Amino acid sequence: MIFSGKGHADLSWNWNQHTWSWRPDRGKWQPDFGFPKETVRLDVSTAFHPPADRLAFWSNYAFLGRDVVDEAQGSTPQGSTPQGSNQGGSNQGTVRTGAGADTFSARSRSIFDPGGAFFAYRATACAGRARPGVSRDGDISFGLILKGERRDIHIDGTETVTQAGNFFVYDRREVVRFRWTDHKAVSVTMSTERPTAVLGHEWPSSQAMAQALNGSRLAPLLRGQMLLLARQSGRMSVSEQSAVLHSLFDLILTILGQIPSTDGAAETRPRLDMLRQSTLRYIDQNIAMPHLDVMHIARVLGCSRATIYRAFADHDGAVADTIRRARLQRARQLLIEVPGMTVASVAARCGVSDIRTFNRMFRKFYGVTPREMQRGATGPAPI
């Protein structure tokens, strides 16, 4: 089950004032609060909130800076403000609810990190209008719909419909109207500084970015990582949550980096750096694959071998050396942490099928044999 509430409260969080100056029980999040100093968690549910206030309550935490209406019943006339909603203020946005507002329900589980955030949520139908320059205009969201449908109407009048199983992009530089059916979704939010470093200041449209995400060879991996974090975050340590979240950042930016530059410029260093990080992460996650090589990685990441070589050009070690070093470092870890594992099993777990080749590689790298490593001769630390 992706969504599981905790306790009987509308809000549940796990940080103190030192970690993050914002506290959800003391008012809405504002840009001045920024992101926390370390990875934290926030659960939001409308289940225990007064029915008439649920949509307004949800909009404070999930639709910051937007007008939101209850799609099930439509909106009340302008100026109708339910109890518990924000009163005026151009930077706050207004919440409009109709006679059916008490039919609205939603809940979410969020992970906030110094670099961004992750949200897993479900809600009944709603609609609204987003306004740039209000509230969280310094970030961009990349979402995956698990159930339901989202419809965006852009400032130029074009319309984008995203259905279950597909990615969408919410770019706060664009004025859009949005409409959700009953839905479940997950999304990653990051500061606009990250994609700007990869794409430059002339970004492609949100439609082009969504098309790139949906059409990428990395799309299945991105979906899998997003679902992993949604389903397993409650069992993960803070460091594990942060690691998976940052892997999502890397995957998304790698895909965006493959979009042709709008000014026709050649590959930028930030794009190559992101490709290198994605390559390293793919190597780490697939180290047991015997035929892991540059050609395979290039095919998976949707680029040429030459591009990967260029990504590693300014760093120590060729790609093949990086793969070999990663195999041996993983082998050393297994030999030390799982002493009962046979050397042959360790070799197989590290993608080396020939035991003699494995022994020779290991001894050359560490100065001791795998068996000696198991007996306590630690050898030099990994480079």
Automatic annotation (TrEMBL):
Top-level taxonomic group: Bacteria
Residues covered by the HTH araC/xylS-type domain = 277-376
Q: Which SUPFAM superfamilies match?
A: Homeodomain-like (SSF46689)
Segments for region (Disordered): 72-99
Which UniProt keywords are listed? DNA-binding, Transcription, Transcription regulation
Please provide, alphabetically and separated by semicolons, the GO molecular function terms listed in this UniProt record: DNA-binding transcription factor activity; sequence-specific DNA binding
The identity of this protein, by name, is: AraC family transcriptional regulator
Q: Which organism is it from?
A: Nguyenibacter vanlangensis
